[in-house]
Write a structure and sequence with these properties.
By secondary structure, the protein is of the alpha+beta class. The protein has 9 helices and 21 strands. Helix 1 packs parallel to helix 3, helix 2 packs parallel to helix 6 and helix 6 packs antiparallel against helix 7. The mean pLDDT is about 90. The chain binds flavin-adenine dinucleotide.
């Protein structure tokens, strides 16, 4: 069968794109290599911008079980500052991603789990997608397969990601629900947040050399948390940490004949500002009207249209995030900023507001 759209990867980007395409009358199959619910290394904070986009799509109910976020508590050395947040929720990726996938299916997309897919060649009317030894064809393909999904080139010196989730009964009271705890240290940073069932999600970004020097991801997290002096998490170093490849990466191409890349597959910047899911859902919402037109009649201009739309919706935000991640490379500068914010937290307001503002560049087609 030839599908109107094949979506590779059912994270937030793929699930929202599949839903939006199905709602536009496309036949859609969503191919996912894992089985839901599946965990994912992530800080699990859905920021204000992501919440707004989900609202505009009529999808904010998927966040109903999330914990509303009040503030972020940033530690550097023995200094700490608490900065108010204008919105956002914490929600485990098991719950968030499953809810979005269900919405895609409810809108008519077909989900195939346990399927590792690969973009094939195109002919005059379709593009092939390999699924194991078989293949399917589609008028358009959405590549939403995450960090490594589109052969994006990692930036030299990029940090790697790490994550683990801690049972609710092992979490010290200090880590109260509704606050994001962000410990910054010489080798990276560690974010901690309580999710909907009281568990503590721990997500980190580390320099590779630091992880090697500390003897692993868990010891690296212990070292960064030790620098800020917050309560110890029992047996943190021995927990089953999961790692990621280099985080900051640029896609070599955002689109090609009959395919479009979205979410992390379109490029990513390390997660200190916690925006990846906002970029994922915004790019899914923005690509859907272009892809829906492209499946009717493909023209090379559709690829250029997506490159320009991606630059507008996501590019500016990723540039700002890059600046923040460069500042964080200097522990002295980070400590100085936290020292200033501990006295005058109000100074962070413009940055926090801008990070949480929904993109005004989302297309008209994004509807509730
Ligand atoms: C340490 C860390 C902390 C973070 N914290 C936050 C945060 O607090 N807030 C925030 O907004 N963002 C955060 N992010 C970023 C966020 O996790 C990502 O930006 C977001 O998940 C991107 O969504 P996506 O749908 O593009 O990709 P993903 O969520 O990675 O989904 C891709 C999907 O594709 C599947 N897949 C991969 N390859 C294939 C294949 N060949 N065939 C079929 N399926 C495939 C995968 O199994 C996966 O389900 C963090 C990231 C890291 C590493």
């Amino acid at each position: 069968m030839t599908w109107d759209a094949v979506v590779i990867g059912a994270g937030p980007a793929g699930a929202v794109a599949a839903r939006e395409l199905a709602r536009r009358g496309c036949s859609v199959v969503l191919l996912e290599k894992a089985h839901f619910p599946r965990p994912k290394v992530c800080g699990c904070c859905v920021n204000g911008a992501a919440v707004s986009t989900l609202q505009r799509l009529g999808l904010d109910h998927v966040l109903a079980s999330g914990v509303p976020l009040r503030d972020v508590h940033i530690g550097a050395g023995r200094r700490a500052a608490t900065v108010k947040l204008p919105g956002g929720v914490s929600l485990s990726r098991e719950a968030f991603d499953l809810a979005l996938v269900r919405e895609a299916v409810a809108s008519g997309a077909q989900l195939r789990e346990g399927m590792t897919a690969k973009l094939g060649e195109s002919d005059a009317d379709t593009r092939e997608v390999f699924v194991g030894r078989e293949s399917v064809r589609a008028k358009v393909v959405i590549v939403a397969s995450g960090l490594c999904g589109n052969d994006a080139t990692p930036e030299a010196g990029s940090k790697i990601g790490a994550g683990v989730i801690i049972a609710a009964d092992a979490v010290p009271l200090f880590f109260s629900p509704g606050t994001i705890f962000m410990a910054t240290g010489s080798g990276g940073y560690v974010g901690l947040v309580r999710v909907e069932d009281g568990r503590l999600d721990v997500a980190a970004a580390f320099d590779v050399a630091f992880v090697k020097a500390q003897g692993g991801l868990g010891p690296a997290a212990e070292a960064v948390l030790g620098e800020v002096g917050w309560p110890r998490l029992p047996r943190l170093a021995e927990l089953p940490w999961k790692g990621t490849p280099a985080l900051t990466r640029r896609a070599n191409a955002l689109a090609g004949e009959r395919w479009f890349a979205i979410g992390d597959a379109a490029g990513y910047v390390e997660p200190f500002t916690g925006e990846g899911m906002a970029w994922a859902v915004a790019s899914a919402a923005a690509v859907a009207p272009i892809a829906a037109r492209a499946r009717q009649h493909w023209e090379a201009s559709h690829a250029h249209e997506w490159e320009a739309a991606h630059r507008r919706v996501i590019g500016r935000r990723q540039r700002a995030c890059r600046v923040v991640s460069r500042v964080l490379r200097s522990p002295a500068l980070t400590t100085a900023i936290v020292r200033v914010l501990s006295v005058l937290p109000v100074l962070s307001r413009p940055v926090v507001r801008s990070l949480n503002r929904s993109s005004s560049s989302l297309p008209q087609g994004v509807r509730a």
